[in-house]
Design brief:
The chain starts with 29 loop residues before the first helix and ends with a helix. Helix content is 37%, strand content 23%.
């Protein structure tokens, strides 16, 4: 297991650019209620393993992660991608075990929040409790969106919907909705959408040729947003 050592600094929620997406949005002093650490995770390292005991939630401070079950690409599947402001580990609360593994897609930082302290903070703050329920609801909505994605028969529709989802998430973070910088590989996208990597590359090439996208490796500019929405259905 490639757990990186915690940094000496504690999370400074008041200065975090992603606080509006995370738990501290309703409470500037959450750091005093939850004695968490900022943990640095190098690209390719694992934050937590599948079936590992659940101790903490992790708020992505910078960078990005992929979550997966099994061993992709042959014997596993990428289940999602976590960006700054997202919480990792919510699926482990029920059984006390992580249902997936989380791997850093680039050099990243997370705020480690011991769940026993999170529970105490939730009990003391109705606003924080409501925010936590909102975050859990957001994860359920994403799961439903993934099921709808996988129900699409056409590969083009799946990829178009995936890019639109990334566009919305970028906009939530104050970034351009049209200029996407993908932290994940074509292989990761294919695993997530149930497509072969060759299919992902072919669809992106076709969308570029049609004038819908500009594609430069992992830099994708959405040129025709209405056209992409039409393709996604």
């Amino acid at each position: 297991m490639n757990h990186s050592p915690a940094l000496p600094a504690e999370p400074d929620c008041a200065l975090c650019e992603r606080r509006h997406l995370c738990l501290p949005v309703v409470r500037d002093d959450i750091a005093s209620a939850v004695a968490g650490n900022v943990r640095r995770v190098a690209a390719g390292d694992t934050l937590f393993q599948q079936d590992e005991g659940f101790v903490s939630l992790y708020a992505v401070r910078s960078g990005s992660f992929k979550t997966s079950v099994g061993t992709p690409p042959r014997n596993g599947r990428v289940t999602g991608f976590a960006l700054p402001g997202d919480l990792l580990g919510l699926d482990a609360i029920d059984a006390g075990l992580h249902r997936c593994q989380a791997i850093a897609l680039q050099d990243s930082e997370v705020c480690e929040l011991p769940y026993d302290q999170v529970e105490q903070a939730l009990a003391a703050s109705g606003m924080l409790q409501r925010r936590f329920h909102q975050l859990m609801s957001r994860e359920i909505v994403r799961d439903h969106a993934l099921m709808r994605l996988l129900g699409q028969r056409q590969a083009g529709a799946r990829i178009a919907a995936f890019l639109l989802g990334l566009s919305e998430r970028a906009q939530e973070r104050g970034q351009s909705a049209a200029e996407l910088r993908l932290p994940m590989s074509r292989e990761d996208i294919g695993s997530h959408l149930g497509l072969r990597i060759e299919t992902v590359s072919h669809v992106l090439t076709r969308l570029r040729a049609s004038g819908c996208l500009r594609v430069r490796l992992r830099e994708i500019d959405i040129v025709d947003m209405p056209g992409l929405r039409s393709l996604a259905g």
